[in-house]
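Dear Dr. H.,

I hope your travels went smoothly. While you were away I took the liberty of generating a structure for the chain from your last submission, since the lab meeting agenda had it listed for discussion. I wanted you to have the full record in hand beforehand rather than looking at slides cold. The sequence, exactly as received, is reproduced here:
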Amino acid sequence: MQLVPTPATAAARLAWVIVRFPTDFNTNLEILLRWLHLLAGITWVGMGYFLVFVVMPWQRELAASARTVAAPPLLRRGLWWFRWASVVTVFIGLWLWMMEVGADRRAAGEASSSAVWSFFLIWTAAYVIYMGVMMAPLERLHKGPVLAVITAVLVIAASYVFLRINAHGWETNRMLAIGIGGGIGWFMLFNLWGLVWRFQKRLVQWTAAGQLPPEAARMARLAALGAQTNVWLSLPMLFFMAVASHYPLLGGLS
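The corresponding predicted structure, in token form, is as follows:
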């Protein structure tokens, strides 16, 4: 006599047919890293939008007496998540990208790749130039439109140089796109820790104490510009992260 499967048995069999968990270590490690990378990236970018579009306007609307009480706890907590999410995002992303570079290189039969060293050299140099502009005494450089043009030129130039150095014909769209998107993320990481956080922690301390020295206004202006720079840079960063898997834009440059 043939037994008719119950709905529960049929569902279990269906799940057994559809769900297949990989058993090799590298595949499971990679999906764990990608999941953590996405979680941290959402937190990082989301906190940046929250601080620029919500907290900064809110601070300007507060009376001075209320600002000393309300702003410091919020900023301390927000900036903690902001900066540490950036570290997790970037370093897990670099780990995954280096795995991609190695796989591409081995698939092409190449003994070495210029991708990793050129990534760190080019994008770090771009940020050093940007930081020099931000620290320059010429206040005209710190006007929003002027700084936007300078930053755009730096990012476009860095992207172009990275592509030209890594134009051997075997580099994949994914590797090159992340080399640009991740490079912008590397730039943003330096900007957050080297400028925004460095100034904001002093401003928070002074605000909590109710004593703002004369240099506070300039620090606040530069910190705000740095945070706004990161928000705008997140747009091309996210675009190139999407290009990596969904839009064959790069690869095989001569």
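Two observations you may find useful: The chain has one domain: 35-54+70-246. The chain has a mean pLDDT of 90.

With kind regards,
E. W.
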